[in-house]
Amino acid sequence: MTIGNLRPATVLIDETAILHNVQHEVARLKKQTQLFAVVKADAYGHGMLRVAHVAKAAGASGFCVALLDEALDLRAANYTEPVLVLGIVPSEYAAIAAAQTVSLPLSSIDWLKQALPVLETQPELPPLRLHIALDTGMGRIGFTDDQTLLDAVAFIQAHPKAFTIEGIFTHFATADDPDDAYFKQQVAKFNHMVALLPHRPRYVHVSNSATSLWHAACNGNMVRYGVAIYGLNPSGDAIPTTPFPLEPALSLESELTFCKQVHAGDGISYGVTYRAKGDEFIGTVPVGYADGWLRRLQGFHVLVDGHPCEIVGRICMDQFMIRLPKAYPAGTKVVLIGQSGDQEITLLDVAKYSHTIHYEIACNLTSRLKRQSINPIAR
């Protein structure tokens, strides 16, 4: 997708906010506990390489991604820190991961059997680093029973030139829920299964942002710090307090490209779902659903000159219209996410109106929107 460098619409990333959010969490961690920055999905829409740089400067000692491709992008950018892929990678790419010292998750013995001949064709490679995934209640990936886990460990031990166990982990389904009953069940199952291993791996990790912020780690020594890096409360507002203030890093700004006066009954946008109730000023903003500003945001608002301005009519692919309190010239700033005067729109505000979570809103802001750092950390 072509980046709109010549269009007045910009995602602004405050690097000092990211630095703050990581530094404060690193300072809270127990001695010998490491923080891996989760930078998958282009760092939740904030820019993977930008965030990796700031997170490393703030004390992150490694990175987590969703795709092997993302890990390779970090290596290509000369990041030599540990990188863990969280999603299952097809076994045919095992040698690529080994060659780049990228760690992969393991969820089945079948995967090991498929990866072994791939690795044996390149005996000069170091052993593939594996993190054993345990499904303790998320229902996504991982071993669920004791014997299958032990069989996989035995297979790895029988092939030490191909594989090495670097870590073991699980993911909590309800760490961001005030009710911690299910969370405690998962903790108990994880601790039970870890105790089955003949040796404790280098990394034992269960803590995502929510777990790290609100729960005591269960014998872990690494934190997968994700959404909180970006200043977003993992619970939305279900658990409103955090151990330190999280500083949102992302804002979205544009400008009016056009302003006109309409009269009672005049229709706006596709389907004419809005008609002017009287003499009104309508402004056009050059952002649309192709940028991740979705059609369901009709009726929401943006900020112009400190005033909330309703989005009227259907949001188009590349533009939307707003009702203004008065005539404004083209070039007037429009804040979609962020502050204007004493008014603020947060990612959570957008998410609530859209009946989703703020993670999704941030990730959905497409690459067509140019990104720009503010308060940059020295390179």
UniProtKB/TrEMBL annotation:
Recorded E.C. number(s)? Answer: 5.1.1.1
Give residues where N6-(pyridoxal phosphate)lysine occurs. 40
Q: Which cofactor does it need?
A: pyridoxal 5'-phosphate
Q: Which residues form a coiled coil?
A: none
According to the UniProt entry, its GO molecular function terms are: alanine racemase activity; pyridoxal phosphate binding
Pathway where it operates: Amino-acid biosynthesis; D-alanine biosynthesis; D-alanine from L-alanine: step 1/1
Q: Does the keyword GTP-binding apply?
A: no
Listed under GO cellular component are: cytosol
Residues of the active site: 40, 270
Q: Which UniProt keywords apply?
A: Isomerase, Pyridoxal phosphate
- Binding positions (substrate): 140, 317
Q: Which Gene Ontology biological process is one annotated for this entry?
A: D-alanine biosynthetic process
Task: Supply the InterPro entries for this chain.
Answer: Ala_racemase, Ala_racemase/Decarboxylase_C, Ala_racemase_C, Ala_racemase_N, Ala_racemase_pyridoxalP-BS, PLP-binding_barrel
For this protein, what reaction is catalysed?
A: L-alanine = D-alanine
Q: Which residues form the Alanine racemase C-terminal domain?
A: 249-374
Q: What does this protein do?
A: Catalyzes the interconversion of L-alanine and D-alanine. May also act on other amino acids.
Can you tell me which family this protein belongs to?
Belongs to the alanine racemase family.
| Entry protein name | Alanine racemase
Per the UniProt record, the source organism is Lacticaseibacillus rhamnosus (Lactobacillus rhamnosus)
Origin organism lineage: Bacteria, Bacillati, Bacillota, Bacilli, Lactobacillales
